[in-house]
Amino acid sequence: MSRTDEGIIAALLTSRSVKEAAAQVGISDRTMSRRLADPDFQQKLREAGVSLLRGALGSLPGLVTDAVDVLDEGMRSPDQKLRLRAADLVLRHTFRFLNAVDYDQRILRLEEEHEALFAALKR
Questions:
Q1: Residues near 24 by Cβ (< 8 Å), separated by ≥ 6?
Q2: Whether the Cβ atoms of residue 64 and residue 58 lie closer than 8 Å to each other
Q3: What is the pTM of this model?
Q4: Same domain, 79 and 36
Q5: Cα atoms in the 13 Å half-sphere on the side-chain side of 74
Q6: Tag placement on the chain: N or C end, fewer CB within 10 Å?
Q7: Parent domain of 94
Q8: What is the DSSP secondary structure assignment for residue 45, as one 8-state letter?
């Protein structure tokens, strides 16, 4: 990848708009449009975006631990409103998580049944 493309990709990933990214790297809007229309460049941009997202997601486990600690502190607070709010958040998100797990298991079963039926029809 050329240094120019690297700069364009970095600008696109950090700017609020394509126009702002073009100005940041000192190219015209037309040049930016040409680069964005190139399938190889689009692939490189996607890969860079995924890499950036993966890096950001890497910090989530530590933040989740911190969030749980904050909820724990809230549950032990002398302020009844704060305790109730913390309890509500814990319960609500626990039920959401359990529903997500249930839906995931149901979808997996449906996919397995679909594959079995499809295989039977092929015979």
A1: 11, 15
A2: no
A3: 0.52
A4: no
A5: 16
A6: C
A7: 60-122
A8: H
Smallest CA-to-CA distance from 3 within 29, 20, 26 is with 26
Distances (CA, A) of 56 to 43, 51, 53, 63: 20, 9, 5, 11
Instruction: Please tell me the total count of domains within the chain.
Output: 2
SS3 of the chain: helix, strand, coil, percent, to 5: 85, 0, 15
d(CA 74, CA 69): 9
Give tens-digit pLDDT for 24-51: 999 999 999 999 999 999 999 999 999 9
Tokens 């449906």 correspond to: 110
* Six-digit token string for 99: 């529903």
- Asked if residue 1 has pLDDT above 80, the reply is no
Rounded Cα distance, 19 and 107, in Å: 42
Which residue among 16, 33, 57 closes a domain?
A: 57
Tokens of 86: 């913390």
Give the single-character DSSP code of 15. Answer: S
Return d(Cα 91, Cα 84) in angstroms, integer: 10
